[in-house]
Amino acid sequence: MATDREEFARIREVLKKNPRGMNVIEIAAAIDMHRQSVTKYLEMLVISGQVEMRTFGPAKVYYLSQRLPLSAMLSITSDMILLLDRDLKIINANDAFLAKMGAAREDILNKVIGSEYFPLEFQPSIIPRIADAILGKESRIEAVYKKRSKEQYFDVKLLPVVFDDGQPGATVIMEDVTGQKRAEKERETIMARLKESDQRFRSLLQNLRSGVMLADADGRILVYNPAFLQIFGFKDEDMQSLNIRGMEWSAIESFDSDGRILPPDERPSIKAFRTGCPIKNMLVGFRRLTDGRITWSLVNAEPLKAPDGRVERLICTYYDITERKLTEEALRENETRLQKAQEIAHLGSWELDIRSGSLTWSDEVYRIFGLQPQQFTATYQAFLDMVHPDDREAVDTAFTTSVREGRDTYEIVHRVVRKPTGEIRFVHEKCEHYRDASGQIVRSVGMIHDITERVMMEKALLDREEYLKLRLDALLAPGGDICEKTLEEVLDLPALQESIDSLYDVTGIGIWILGLDGKVLAGKGWQDICSKFHRSHPGTCKNCVESDLYLSGKQLADGEYEVYRCKNGIWDIRTPIIVCGKHIANLYSGQFFYEDEEIDRAFFERQADKYGFDKQEYMAALDRVPRVDREKVLKTMGFYTKFARMIARQSYSNARLAKALADKK
Fold first, then answer.
1. β-strands 582-594, 571-579 pairing
2. Beta strand pairing status for 582-594 and 627-628?
3. DSSP string spanning 522-588?
4. How far apart are CA 441 and CA 446, in angstroms?
């Protein structure tokens, strides 16, 4: 056998040196070998794929093969390939075969094909054909492979092969043709129907709700039905000249499922003609030429092929779903409007299948809980986890008790905690239960309404009522002197805060009312450098308080004001509020720089270093402090001094009025 390998090598070498090819006589002379032996070795090399033979009349010329060797083919093809020796033992298999069989290569190598160790259940059996291939007979059959009650069709090629040692073997190439087989069966079914009685076929077409069109290879429409005419808005006389490969057909505007215009080559009928592949259930909209209305159809295009594979007929069906499409769009629009309405009203809906435990939330329920819509699959336990711990037992009891006692509804107001932020929200929850035929509750549908703003408003009203009551009690206290009352006792601070908010929106300059003890009674317009840095750090906050108290101790006459730089380096202004000749509070404005002054940035950088501020953020806050024209400051303070007098007069008037009403009683 070693001698055979040497002879094979000699023949391959001489052919390699003569790429134009050689005949048997030339090869025998070149390697000094008998012609019959050369012929025998050449046949083996041809069978193994190492040498190619071409005929030129009666002459046979041999070339060294340029094809990929079998070992390379094993890895690049999707077909299943087995390589067997003369004893039907598996000596190689490609990955496609191993994957299909669910086997590992080491488990099947050297196993006899078809034995109890590795059965191959094809019908008909391919074992006899493998044995023929080992004997040098090439064959090809169609076989069915059955596994777990599923049938798959394969085109099986069985080829003889001779190994380098001269021993015969066989290559089995199995191509999965299940899809083709099914397509052939579908085509056969259609062809069988077309061969039925012409009368019966046309009667069927006349009564079909789906549009049907049959065209020949040139695009001429041979058969159509009334539903086809209705979908496209055609008349019978239009069909005589209509060609689905012509300009008139292409002029029909078509749309895909998203409403985008389809290029002509992508329309089902043209694409099926062009590719030879069937199109299944493609949703297409067609704009009718007669009235411009768009009709929507599920289109199937089936090319009918001649034995040579050429498309000779095309049958298309058009199932009109225009009404369903419009209904779906209306439902989507309604769903969108519902979601938007829920979002605006902060009203979410939920549904619980009690038997399966499946819970669904609308998008707004997720938002109420501080989550992204459909962030995760909702569960009853996840809902309870978001209920405020103090309300959790009451909420769970309300639901479970209503189910256990067979009540139709329940409702409860409780709190929820938004996990991401810890924010507490108030919700009103209401539920209705639904029963099966036996009367058992099987489904619960409910709503969750975020009523936080309403609860906060009600609380604010109660707080305001309590505030007004306490203020009036203080004014009417026996022996009380209205001129001895504090500004906080005689002034409607919530109303004052609203006025200050409006003033700040107009002027852009901060304004605050501070008691003589430095307590802020109302105000707006804190700059970030003050609120986030100066008043947030004990060291710089001390500077703020000292500035406030220092100014409070200085006497100013009614209508006067004082502009000063606070100990933290920013300009402030104050004017006194005097009631009954008594200085009881100050109106402050400021936290600004003049437009024409140069800011001492080095001072503020030292501030940042001294108190450990983030220097970049601190200096950015400094840059946001407003620059104000000196003339504007003068005009603004002229107004603020009058505003301070108005506050004083209102405080005094409120107190006198309340006292007079009390005296009348």
1. antiparallel
2. parallel
3. EEE---HIIIIIITTSHHHHHHHHHHHHHHHHS---TT--EEEE-TTS-EEEEEEEEETTEEEEEEE
4. 14
Task: List beta partners, residue 295.
Answer: 286
Q: Name the nearest CA neighbour of 639 among 594, 592, 573, 584.
A: 573
pLDDT tens per residue, range 217-262: 888 888 888 888 888 888 888 887 788 887 778 778 888 888 888 8
More confident residue, 501 or 116: 501
What is the reported pTM? 0.32
Are 151 and 144 a contacting pair, CB within 8 Å? yes
The DSSP 8-state label assigned to residue 415 in this structure reads E
392, 391, 390, 366: which is closest to 381 by C-alpha?
Answer: 392
Give the span between the Cα atoms of 523 and 193, in whole angstroms.
Answer: 88
pLDDT at 1 over 50: no
Query: Cis omega before residue 264 (within 30°)?
Result: no
Alpha carbons within 13 angstroms on the beta-carbon side of residue 549 total 7
How far apart (Å, rounded) are the C-alpha atoms in residues 485 and 515?
12
- DSSP conformation letters of 112-143: BTTBTTB---EES-SHHHHHHHHTT--EEEEE
Q: Is 170 left (phi over 0), alpha (psi -120 to 50) or beta?
A: beta
